[in-house]
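Late entry, evening session. Most of the bench is empty. Finally got around to the prediction I had been postponing all week. Sequence below, unchanged from the version circulated by S.P.
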Amino acid sequence: MAAPEVRLETERLVLRLPELGDWPRYAELFMHPTAASHIGGPMLRADAWRKFLQMPGAWMVQGFAMFSVVEKSSGLWLGFAGPWFPEGWPGTEVGYAFHYDAWGKGHATEACAAAMDWAFDHLGWTDVIHSISPENTASQAVAMRLGSRNRGPGALPPPLDQHAIDIWGQTRDEWRTRRAKVA
C-alpha cells in the first residue's frame, strides 16, 4: 500500500507528508520540557523516534494523518497539523503541535485551516475536534481563532487517559460559515 500524494499550500506554508529530514526538529519538539508538556510530555530521543513513525504509518494504513508543516520561504520544518483519528480517539481531530521557535506567528491557525478544509472536503468528515489540555491557553487561542468552541471535558484512550483534556470543536457547516473569517 502506498501513501497518497497530498500537498497543501497556503500563503506561507506547505503541508506535506512527513519525511526523514523532518526528524531532527521533530525530536527537538518532543524532547523539550515546555514544548512537549501538552502533547504527552517530554520524551527520550528513542521514544520520540517511535512516535515520529506514527504519522507515516497512519498515512500508509488510513490514507490520512497529520501533515508536516514547512515554511515555504526557508524549507524549515515548523511542526505538524492535520487529521488524526486513531483507535479509541474521542472524535475526528485536526490536531497540531509546533516547534517552540515557530510559536506566536500564526502558523498553527494557517495550517489547521488548510487541514480542516482538506478533512471536510476530501475525507468527508462532518465534525472536527481539537483535544486540548485545560492549561494550554495558546492552543485554546488557536482553536478559538479557527471558530471552535469548548464542548467540555473529554477523555483520551489509554495510556493517554491520565491527561486531562477539553474537547474543542465545530461541525463542517459551522466551519464553512466561518471559513472566510479565518486567516
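Two things to note before I forget:
The mean pLDDT is 94.
Residues 107-122 form the longest helix (16 residues).
Will write this up properly tomorrow.
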